[in-house]
């Protein structure tokens, strides 16, 4: 698979031994590692912007493995632009590895939730639900299903906007390709390529792939975040969720409206489960979605103004430095002869300013780099419990 946006000839030289990745990007650190790939934070030498690049860990084991990896990149690109879908930039194949370049987010929803000192407020849970319903609506309208929706595969921007990502199990279920998809997925599941069992819909175990599976996974994710509970990966607690029984010791603290929506999303029978369109049409969801959109607009507008002020201030400093005004450079403020006694060092020398006058802050605001660890490998209890 070729690069979506080829670099300028002056930047990438194929005759050099260094890879395209090494020539065109500065690697700023590892963001995360999974069974199928590593994700790095990089600085693009083409446009000076930060991105995330996912690189397959192992070399392609054959043409079938290569086709599976390339399909992930092509499907991600075909999803197009959407406010709640992780933005695709480019993809390329090099030396037996696949590279996928995407927009860079601050952290994953899983890490963000675990870093909170207390339970997620219900209004925040509603906001998460609205963002991800919008993402699924876009994805399903194009004939795709995600099949691996969970907090670890959802990312947050600086403004708190959620972006659905990690499309390694993305499948196209439209028309003529349905039989081909079913056959391919059945073979790949035999190889162990399947979603997280904690969020998996019951019909997936029977080889039934449909948009309703994403609704179920989203319901489990919102239940986990809103109730601050650990989702069981097996045992009686796992069975109870797939029988439509929500743990009352956690859900009793939720409003009746949110409990009702969760029950619609976690219906055991896929044919009786609410669709994304039906959920978005609910009055309570429409109301919460409107509030969420207003909140995002205000937050992102303030962040834009703040960034604009930073750019103008930086430009002003460079301009003053470039002008080199003589009278400004030659002038120094006079030192007072009789400063207050309590603010000076008691050494008898009134020409030496105190330590507070000598201090100069040369630091600058830095960007916190958060590392997203692997998918949790703790041995979860078979019953539902708090984090």
Describe it for me?
Residues 178-197 are annotated as: Disordered. Residues 178-189 have a biased composition (Basic and acidic residues). It is found in: Golgi apparatus membrane. Residues 25-285 form the Protein kinase domain. With 387 residues, this protein is an alpha+beta fold. The chain folds into 2 domains: 22-103, Phosphorylase Kinase, domain 1 (2-Layer Sandwich); 107-295 and 371-386, Transferase(Phosphotransferase) domain 1 (Transferase(Phosphotransferase), domain 1, Orthogonal Bundle), CATH 1.10.510. Helix content is 40%, strand content 14%. It is built from 13 helices and 12 strands. It has helices at residues 20-24, 63-78, 109-115, 122-141, 177-190, 211-227, 235-241, 248-251, 256-265, 276-280, 283-323, 326-330, 355-358; strands at 25-33, 37-44, 50-56, 88-94, 97-103, 107-108, 144-145, 154-156, 162-164, 171-172, 229-230, 385-386. Strands 1-2-3-5-4 form a 5-stranded antiparallel beta sheet. Strands 6-8-9 form a 3-stranded antiparallel beta sheet. A hairpin with a 5-residue loop joins strand 8 and strand 9. Helix 4 (122-141) runs antiparallel to helix 6 and helix 4 (122-141) packs across helix 11. The radius of gyration is 27 Å and the shape is globular.
